[in-house]
Amino acid sequence: MSGHAPHAAVEAAQLSEVAPGVYSYVQPDGTWFINNMGFVVGTDSVISIDATSTERRTRAYIDAIASVTPNPVTILVNTHHHADHTHGNYLFADATVVSHTACREVMVAAGIPDYSAVFPGVDWGSLQFRAPDVTFEGSTVLHLGDRRIELSDLGFVAHTDGDILAWLPDCRVLFCGDLIFHGGTPFALFGSVSGTLDALDVIESYGADVIVPGHGPHFGGDDIARVLGEQRSYLRFVQDAAAEGIAAGRSPLEQAQASDLGAHARYTDPERLAGNLHVAYREAAPEGYEFPGVPQAITDMVAYNGGAMPRCLA
User: Fold this and answer.
1) CA-CA distance, 109 to 77, in Å (whole number)?
2) Sign of the C-alpha dihedral, residues 52, 58, 64, 68?
3) Span 10-221: which CATH code?
4) Domain extent listing, the chain
5) DSSP letters of 33-94?
6) Cα-flanking dihedrals φ and ψ of residue 132, to 5°?
7) pLDDT, tens digit, for every residue of 231-263?
8) Using an 8 Å Cβ cutoff, are 85 and 214 in contact?
């Protein structure tokens, strides 16, 4: 596919203190299954926001936490059900895992999926399934000493059915999971294009000083308006392309192949356009379009890539 190494080095992960006692753990290059996590250090314990995809990567993340504090991780939050954020749950043996109710339901139904056909060559390690222990809908608050970590759902489907935001009001840091792919192509195949657009409005309403996305670098200041604007621009491009394709009688794959990504071509994982268009077609023409299912959408993404599998360096 390219001259890249078969795996992105775990040593490339960037541990940053984004506020006192609050850390982001950003894994370059943020492509398939290379996600971000973060953690909050208290006097006696640690709360982690998400795990990661492989045993090797999760152990490296646990080592990074230990480089900051000897305190144990007692709570692990899953921002949504996708495997790159949840596969590593089992390595946090002493932690209570918290998620949205819908997140747990999907995880229990799916177990540990076999991704070998789409992502060959990934060393997943000796994964063991670990479902969340505590679930909620609406909102809840985690207390770490005097610090509050406010967990809230969106009330609608966005990246998935069961996305949650983790907000630290004292330092105005927001962890938003895969509602944002900073520098990457947004992905709505398991959710909603319009819902993801609405989620960006919710994120903006927090007035955060720092946002930690599910993939790509954390950002703050003037970059918040820029990144949110870029994500909105892409999602509206998908909606416009769907309208064009429906009017022309093209399939989602045919429309993806006919579309000029323009400025969006610089984002990683461009094949997601074919998958996103399936969702946008369903939303634009609910009576006239029958969704063929995720496997077909993934097949279309491979076809969009000229037969090459999605680039995964995990």
Assistant:
1) 19
2) positive
3) 3.60.15.10
4) 10-221, 233-304
5) T---EEEEE-SS-EEEE---SSHHHHHHHHHHHHHH----EEEEE-SSS-HHHHGGGGG-TT
6) -60, 150
7) 999 999 999 999 999 999 999 999 999 999 999
8) yes
What is the maximal distance between C-alpha atoms in the chain?
A: 61
Q: What is the reported pTM?
A: 0.96
Question: How far is Cα 19 from Cα 269, in angstroms, rounded to an integer?
Answer: 31
User: Is a pLDDT exceeding 50 seen at residue 46?
Assistant: yes
Q: How far is CA 157 from each of CA 4, 50, 166, 213, 280, rounded to the nearest angstrom? A: 35, 19, 17, 18, 13
In the block, tokens 């390690």 appear at 125
Distance CA 25, CA 8 (A): 15
pLDDT value, residue 4: 43
How many CB atoms sit inside 10 A of residue 137's CB? Answer: 12
- Say which amino acid occupies 96: T
34 SS3 class: coil
Cα of 309 vs its chain's centroid, Å: 20
Rounded to whole angstroms, the Cα distance separating 284 from 308 reads 29
Integer angstrom CA distances of residue 220 from 178, 211, 213: 17, 6, 11
Backbone angles phi, psi at 47, to 5 degrees: -110, 125
Helix (H) / strand (E) element for 236: namely helix 222-248
Q: How confident is the model at residue 6 (pLDDT cuts 50, 70, 90)?
A: low
- In percent, how much of the chain has pLDDT > 90? 94
Q: Per DSSP, what are the bridge partners of residue 109?
A: none
> Which of 60-69, 115-124, 136-145, 196-205 is least confident?
115-124
Closest CA to 19 of 173, 163, 122, 149: 173
The whole-angstrom separation of Cα 125 and Cα 38 is 22
pLDDT at 7: 83
pLDDT for 3 beyond 50: no
pLDDT higher than threshold 60 for residue 2: no
CA angle 192, 220, 161 (to 5 degrees): 20
CB-CB neighbours of 17 under 10 Å: 11
The sign of the CA dihedral 68, 73, 75, 77 is positive
